[in-house]
Design brief:
Length: about 190
């Protein structure tokens, strides 16, 4: 029988390099930003590194959506802070934004030369379709994991209607849904 190391994998402290490398990879290999990054964020943070549970990552996504900034950057900041404090938050955030900065600088220097080529237009059309699929995948996962109770379904339907029919601000919809959740938690469960 092999001798076990005193440290379990779960007890092993996350290094700054782990945070930077993981979030750099997320920033480098996910296109479309925002919601398109959710599946890879979940895979890295929950499945690969055990930095968060599935429920925690969904909470991070919800909070990241409600706060100013990009959802991937906000999630990286939350995970980095949880794992290694303020410096971990800064390193994880730097990791997720570095690829975008590098790629945008390269594209900006080249785009004027190639923007008129038909192949570039076709490539962007294909990329937009792929990004739409990634966003749809993230939405399906969020719906499956969050619509488990009747009250959640009601809040979802009302939020969808408010968004589609009345074109309400996402801030109003999110704050209203949060208030409805609090009201249900305090008053609905007492019955």
């Amino acid at each position: 029988m092999p001798i076990k190391n005193n440290m379990d994998m779960k007890d092993k402290k996350t290094t700054y390099f782990d945070l930077f490398a993981s979030f750099f990879r997320i920033g480098l290999f996910t296109f479309g930003g925002g919601y398109a990054m959710l599946p890879m964020l979940e895979r890295e943070c929950v499945e690969s590194h055990d930095w968060a549970t599935r429920d925690e990552i969904l909470d991070y996504f919800a909070i990241a959506q409600c706060t100013p900034g990009v959802i991937a950057v906000n999630t990286a900041t939350f995970i980095g802070s949880k794992e290694r404090g303020a410096l971990g938050a800064a390193i994880a955030t730097l990791g997720v934004i570095c690829p975008s900065i590098i790629i945008i600088l390269i594209i900006a220097s080249l785009i004027t030369s190639f923007a008129s080529l038909p192949a570039v237009g076709y490539a962007f059309n294909g990329i937009r379709v792929a990004v739409a699929v990634l966003i749809l995948n993230a939405v399906i996962k969020l719906v499956k994991s969050n619509l488990r109770r009747p009250v959640s379904v009601v809040i979802c339907v009302i939020a969808c209607a408010a968004s589609i029919l009345f074109d309400l601000s996402p801030v109003i919809i999110v704050l209203s849904a949060g208030a409805a959740g609090i009201a249900y938690g305090y008053f609905g469960r007492r019955r």
